[in-house]
Amino acid sequence: MPYASRWYHTTSPLTEVTAYYRHALPAAGWTLVHKGDIHPGQRAFRGERMCYSRPVDGVTAYLSVGFPGEVGEGPDDVLGPGPRDVDVFVSADPDDPDGYRNC
Predict the structure, then answer these.
(1) CA distance 22 to 60
(2) Count of the separate structural domains present in the chain
(3) Which of 18, 37, 55, 92 could lock 61 by a disulfide, CB 3.0 to 4.6 Å apart?
């Protein structure tokens, strides 16, 4: 399955990061498929994410934006106002007619 992934480190507030992607991705032709609950008090290791899709050369591509954390980071590891990491993951599988979703 072809894919690309990029992790970013940020100190921007969670609301700014999610607002950026909620605006930028639809403007680039991506359609929201699923949005998990993303809020400042959630535990980072839950890795909630937003999922978008769009056709690319006849194949449905999926793009997810998530806020992953380490499972062993401890009980106080919540996203807070500024998440540490943002994961942007894109995948598409021309051999899977139902579409592979990493969302």
Answers:
(1) 19
(2) 1
(3) 92
